[in-house]
Design brief:
Layout: E1 10-12, E2 18-20, H1 28-36, E3 48-54, E4 56-58, E5 69-71, H2 72-84, E6 90-97, H3 102-113, E7 119-125
Parallel strand pairs: 3-6, 4-5, 6-7
Antiparallel strand pairs: 1-2
Length: 137
């Protein structure tokens, strides 16, 4: 099935009838970047998957649009996908944050330490308090 550009939900026909138009993203990769922050979840050509987490960790409260944020509900499914993919042998997490929702950060940390694959975490920015919970086993 080929992706088509987004169209308005309905269109007025010359005879006065309205027809429904199905909206689809023009580019699936662009939509994944917009929604998940990466192109595919995961499409690995390497044995090591890199998971960037940039900005504040957004939990159940939605941050203002001018804030850089990574939604934890987008990170957790990616971690599950990495765990289940036999071609991925390890995970590199690049965490560049100033903090965010504590419970969301701890949920991510719990998932990271429970993975059976090797995980390396690089913690940048001011979110150093999460460094201990995501430290290797």
């Amino acid at each position: 099935m080929q992706d088509q550009p987004l169209q308005p939900p309905s269109k007025q026909e010359p005879d006065g009838q309205r027809r429904q138009v199905t909206a689809r993203p023009a580019n699936r990769k662009l939509e994944n970047i917009r929604e998940l922050g990466q192109m595919n979840v995961p499409e690995a050509k390497s044995e090591i998957h890199c998971l960037p987490i940039v900005g504040q960790i957004e939990g159940h409260l939605v941050l203002p649009p001018q804030n850089k944020a990574t939604k934890y509900e987008h990170v957790l499914p990616q971690l599950v996908a990495v765990e289940q993919d036999r071609d991925i042998k390890g995970l590199l997490v690049v965490l560049n944050t100033v903090g965010g929702d504590v419970e969301a950060g701890l949920a991510i940390a719990e998932m990271l330490v429970s993975m059976s694959k090797p995980v390396v975490s690089l913690v940048l920015g001011g979110g150093h308090s999460i460094g201990v919970p995501i430290a290797p086993k």
